[in-house]
Design goal:
Elements (H helix, E strand, L loop, with lengths): L9 E3 L5 E17 L6 E5 L5 E6 L3 H4 L2 E5 L5 E11 L3 E9 L1
Antiparallel strand pairs: 1-7, 2-5, 2-6, 2-7, 3-4, 3-6
Length: 99
């Protein structure tokens, strides 16, 4: 599955992918990290490089291949969105809106 920053959810698969910066706020409803290996991790940052979410997989044979959080229908507002690190797999970011 390839990166897609125009749909909802956003599909992000590459570190340093920038979705929104420069004062563009996005409201994030949910984040799901789907990795392909043990101990894989993914870190998302806002436009000021502050960590806003960290996903970490354990032993995929026991815990499965995903880590996710749901932030409610209103979600939370982030001033920008950057994939700081992603070991493998993809991260799905479900948006409630962008300003």
């Amino acid at each position: 599955m390839a990166k897609n920053v125009t749909g909802n959810p956003l599909i992000l698969d590459t570190a340093e992918t920038v979705y929104a910066t420069g004062g563009r706020e996005c409201r994030i409803k949910a984040i799901k990290y789907i990795g392909t290996g043990d101990e894989a991790s993914c870190i998302l940052q806002d436009g000021a490089a502050r960590e806003i979410w960290r996903g970490k997989l354990g032993d995929v044979s026991v815990d499965g291949y995903q880590d996710s959080d749901y932030f409610g229908d209103r979600g939370f507002i982030s001033d920008g969105l950057i994939v700081a690190t992603i070991d493998n797999g993809i991260v799905l970011v479900y948006l409630a809106g962008v300003r």
